[in-house]
Amino acid sequence: MVNFPKFTFSFFLFFIGSVSAHSLWIPEGYLGWEKAKDCYLPLKKEIQPGAISLNLLNLDRAKMGEYAKESAELRISSLNCFRENVAKDLPEDALSEDLGEYFKASILAEKEKEDMYFSYEWRILLSDNRPYPLTPGEVNLAKQWFESRSEIKTEITNLTMEFLSEKDPKGKESRYLDLFTGYYGSLLRERDKFLLSLSVESYQSYTEALKHRKEKAE
Fold first, then answer.
1. Which residues contact 173 (CB under 8 A, 6 or more apart)?
2. Which DSSP symbol is given to 45?
C-alpha cells in the first residue's frame, strides 16, 4: 500500500468513496496550509460510496440539495475563517492587493490533490480485477462523468480564488453561497446520473470495491 504523510493520508481516507472536498483544505507544505487545516469543517454526515438517489428516473434532488447547500456553507465558512487567520500574519500590502492571487498556487494544489485522490476511485472504476467490470458502453459513460467532474471542480476552484479576492465578501456572501451550492449540486447530480446509468451488476461491483478499499485503508 502507498505510504502518505499523516495529514495527507487522513484526507486520502476521506476522499475514497466521496465526491469532493467541501471546506477549503491546502496540501501540507503549501502557503497557508496550517491556517486552512485549522479552519477545516467536516460534513455532518459523510456522503457514502454509491448513488444518493434510488433510480435515474427519480433523482433525489432534495437530499442532493441539502448536501450541496451544506457543502457550500462549509466552504464559505472555512474561507472566511482562513481569511481572518491569515490576516493576522500577512503584510498589509498583501492584504490590500489580492488574496486569491496571493494563495493561487495553494488553491490550485488543492484541486490537483483532489484529482489525485479521485484517480484512485477512477482506477477502481476501470479495473478488470473485480467482478463485472465496465462494458465498453459504460466506459464511455465513465469518461463523460470524468469530464463533467473536472469542469465543475475547475469552476469551484476559480470561484474559491474569486471569493478570496473579493473586497466585500460579507456583502456578496449570498451570491457566492448560491454559486457554490449550484456547483456542488451539479457535481452530485452528474455523479448520480453516471452511477445509476450502470448495470446493476457493474454498479454493485464498483461500490463494493470502493467500500472494501476504504475499510482496508482504515
1. 76
2. S
Q: pLDDT for 82-141, tens place per residue?
A: 999 998 887 766 555 689 999 999 999 999 988 888 888 888 889 888 889 899 999 999
* Planar angle of CA 17, 22, 27, nearest 5 degrees: 85
The whole-angstrom distance between residue 169's C-alpha and the CA centroid of its chain comes to 22
**Residue of 7, 13, 9, 12 whose CA lies nearest to 36:** 7
Question: Distance between CA 52 and CA 15 in Å, rounded?
Answer: 16
What lies within 8 Å, CB to CB, of 60 at 6+ separation is: 52, 53, 54, 192
Q: Which of 203, 54, 41 is nearest to 135 (CA)?
A: 203
- Whether the pTM exceeds 0.90: the reply is no
- What distance in Å separates the CA atoms of residue 10 and residue 46, rounded to the nearest whole number? 14
